[in-house]
Amino acid sequence: KALFDANLVKKDFPILQERINGRPLIWLDNAATTQKPRQVIDRISYFYQHENSNIHRAAHELAARATDAYEAAREKVRAFLNAGSTNEIVFVRGATEAINLVAKSWGDQHLSAGDEIIVSNLEHHANIVPWQQLAARKGLKLRVIPVDDDGQILLDEYAKLLNPKTKLVTFTQVSNALGTVTPAKKIIELAHQAGAKTLLDGAQSVSHLRVDLQALDADFFVFSGHKVFGPTGIGVLYGKEDLLNETQPWQGGGNMIKDVTFEHTQFHQAPSRFEAGTGNIADAVGLGAAIDYVNRLGIDNINQYEHYLLLYATNLLKDVPGLRLVGTAPDKASVLSFTLKGFTNDEVGQALNKEGIAVRTGHHCAQPILRRFGLESTVRPSLAFYNTCEDIDTLVESLYKLKRNK
Ligand code: PMP
């Protein structure tokens, strides 16, 4: 039974009508960023034509409209993640900024020399570097959960790393380089048993699978709007309400204060205490429209459809002679990382571009996990719900063509 018609869905995305080198664009770079449906583009345009104002402070009609739209978007994010309260939803620039916020504010305040932070081998640089910087500032130790040859977290090895010095376990829900889905609930449960807090990086998960923060019980969760069919420059930090309110803000300024004198400043409660200055109001509203769009298709339908597409693609790619798939976990989302014998990854990427196919080649900002597999880079097609079996057929045919023409 059809969950939805991906060819009809495609029509909602104006950029997917582009032609590249005379061919219809096939966008398989969804792990880097996703394309935007007309509904999101129109919503942002509507905001600037009918609602634009700064929020929260003026007495006039447009301030009320802008504030309502912004706060409605916050509620959409809350419902999308099944968070308990909108007070737990902080708008930031993206996943990177959210992680840096936690490292700079919560980390600087709560961690001290000798404490330990656990990350996984799968992490994006955005979930490694801020912790390394914090570790250097504070004299902390960074420990790494290893993965097996399929790219799956080794839970037994993880359990051995946990100890009374562990203060934070921070890891991705889906690997951007391999596509591995990690056992997030179990990892969080074990961390909590050891008395550690947890940060879950949802940059690659929110567009592919249902995220239920109350069930997962993560202390912090981050994602970027642009990877879930929303605009760039807007993202979300989720934090449990008590945790946010006991954490000192990292940036000071307007909007985030209750009272200021030259001697002393009182901060607002969350989320305002972490939203200093004028934020990205229009794009928060655009993110709300993107979530509406995803909800209309249904995240469970999306998950099921993409699972089918991923299997379809995996089976065809496996048969291409000389193709090495990296990341072979049974539980994966969206990502197909590979190398092709006899060709550099750049050659493959260029050849696909000639056919109108957009993939990423390189280290995907996740060098440690590629090096785990002895690689410096891969070719990485990554799927979204607007991709079709025909897109995959064209990808695979283009690889055979490249090999024939060698
Ligand atoms: N974490 C993961 C797993 C990612 O894939 C990315 C983006 N590639 C990020 C974090 C950082 O996201 P952003 O660049 O949007 O801040």
UniProtKB/TrEMBL annotation:
EC number: 2.8.1.7
Segments forming domain Aminotransferase class V: 26-395
Record GO terms (molecular function): cysteine desulfurase activity; lyase activity; pyridoxal phosphate binding
UniProt keyword Nucleotide-binding present: no
Assigned keywords, A-Z: Lyase, Pyridoxal phosphate, Transferase
One GO term (biological process): cysteine metabolic process
Keyword Transmembrane: no
Cofactor(s) the record lists: pyridoxal 5'-phosphate
Enzyme class name: transferase
Catalytic activity from the UniProt record: (sulfur carrier)-H + L-cysteine = (sulfur carrier)-SH + L-alanine
Family to which the UniProt record says this protein belongs: Belongs to the class-V pyridoxal-phosphate-dependent aminotransferase family. Csd subfamily.
Protein name, per record: cysteine desulfurase
Phylogenetic classification of the source organism: Bacteria, Pseudomonadati, Bacteroidota, Cytophagia, Cytophagales
Full protein: residues contained: 245 to 650 of 650
